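Narrative summary of target 7.
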Amino acid sequence: RSVEQMMDKDVETKRFTDALSRMVWQTFSMNPVPQFVKPLIDIYANKNPFTSAPIESAGMERLTKQERKTDSTSPIAIALGGVSNAMSQVTGESTELSPIQIDYMIRAYMGWLGGTIAASTTQAIRPFNDGVYPSMDYTKTLALGFVEKLPTAQSTYMTDFYQNNVKIQQAYADMRHFAELQQSEKVLEILKEKRSEIAMSKFYDKTAKNLANIRQRIQMISNPAYKGMTSEQKEEEIKRLKQIMSMAAKQAEDARKQLKNQPAP
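Modeled conformation, tokenized:
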């Protein structure tokens, strides 16, 4: 990150400060939050502190809790998501957990054992399901949740996009709110302070919807019931689609930085 900060003029300082903060509070174990409640706080904040990526990606809020899963979500988390949905009928909707959140908590609370359980259930159900699965990532399987990959350059673009999209949509919503109240002075103040965010709101919203559509395509291909492709073809197609997502996120981020660096009119 230090070399990146010195060599790449387009990299924002925030990425370096986030990496430094992560090193101090996570790597050096200086986080004062007890481990028992920390995963719950991560779920509430929707952020994986190790990778800085969202636990549930943007766009999933439109789905019901039970449908918030990816091609890598373990079967046991999906099953427990159904149990959580049933229990929420009694305890309230706010207590329901999605399969993605349950997968995160299994690994956060149970460490290596949790990763082993999740990986084992994935492998255990394969012989009983008809269809074709994408080729396995054996590095991830053998690690059994004990090793987690840091974000690549591609996934870093995705993380930056989703984090900035939240701020951009909030700025646009603030402006619309005061416009509906006919408070023109407040609208002009927001436009002056957050002109670049508001200018990018429609572009980011359109990109987020495109990413959600591609993610649905990935889930469809990952489903063993999806026929017409071999395991290797499924793996390659999923990689290609994820690369398209990364390129779309990078395009949006590059446009945002360029507009941000332009002098105000």
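The chain has eleven helices and no strands.
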